[in-house]
Write a structure and sequence with these properties.
This protein is mainly alpha-helical. The protein has 5 helices and no strands. 36% of the residues are buried.
Length: 169
């Protein structure tokens, strides 16, 4: 079992990311619900190209729709990655550590995509505080998920080195 620095740091980062991904998923879910409820009222007097745009959000700018959808996807995948990663780190075998590291990389790439859209969505106009919080959490999560993936890879490397190689001698 891989115990020690990389594994304990990975567990702490996985738990932190779990909490942050839950917050991101909740805020993004609220934004989608708000958009569904309010888009009918806000589209009454606008020009036809905006009415045909399938992802129109009455809050933010035109990048908000894509950002919120990708943030929700990254949040759900991040929650599942963190939960399975916590289980895999508690087992500590090299194969489970490599599995956790691989899923952390997938979650990190989705978070990077949402972070890029968050950076595109940031503007000088007034936005609701919930969108600003979603942007901030997404940008912070991109960094903490990178640290988590790195610590999981370090823990997997330590688990591989600690596992005796069996076979003929």
């Amino acid at each position: 079992m891989a115990t020690g620095g990389p594994s304990s740091m990975a567990s702490a980062l996985l738990f932190l990311n779990l909490i942050m991904y839950v917050v991101v998923a909740i805020i993004a879910g609220w934004a989608i619900n708000y958009s569904i409820d309010e888009s009918r009222n806000s589209l009454e007097g606008v020009s036809p190209p905006v009415r045909l745009f399938p992802i129109y959000f009455p809050i933010g700018n035109l990048a908000t729709g894509f950002f919120v959808i990708f943030a929700l996807i990254a949040g759900v995948v991040g929650v599942s990655t963190s939960l399975t990663g916590l289980h895999d780190v508690s087992q500590g075998s090299p194969s489970s550590m490599m599995s956790a590291a691989a899923s952390a990389i997938v979650s990190w790439t989705l978070t990077l995509l949402a972070m890029g859209l968050a950076c595109k969505e940031i503007s000088t106009s007034l936005r609701p505080p919930s969108l600003r919080a979603l942007e901030a959490f997404t940008i912070i999560l991109a960094g903490t998920q990178l640290l988590c993936a790195g610590s999981l890879h370090a823990g997997a490397h330590a688990a591989i080195l600690a596992t005796p190689i069996g076979g003929r001698v």
